[in-house]
Design a protein that fits this description.
There is one protein chain. The chain is mainly alpha-helical. It has one domain. Helix content is 80%, strand content 0%. It is globular and about 50 Å long. 26% of the residues are buried.
Amino acid sequence: MTTILAPKILLAVAGGGALGAMARYVTMSLMGHFAGAAFPWGTLFVNVTGSFLMGALVEFGVTRWAMTPETRAFLVVGVLGGFTTFSTFTLDIVTLMERHVSFGAFLYVLLSVTLGLAAFFAALVVVRFLWPAPGVS
């Protein structure tokens, strides 16, 4: 059986996905409660935060921490895959457009992509600064 379909990998993805989805639900519910539902602040927050965390995990995983395939599947595919969501992002854009909030939809796309990329790169910089790779000074 290939590593991809190994039961340990599949269980790692499933367990991480459940935790990530629960974290997304709680985070988005809290953001909606405190910031209101007129703008998709919750989805924006989880996607930007998820981008930052993905950047940190990628940097750690490549240069500082030899993650096992199970750990990578759990954290990257499971937890972060369950936490962030492109489908909700798309739904939010369509909802804003159907409400005739075209500028809000445009702003949401612009902020999501820009802040997501910035968060990912910021995580790389933070990890590299706080935990230099062995042999790098």
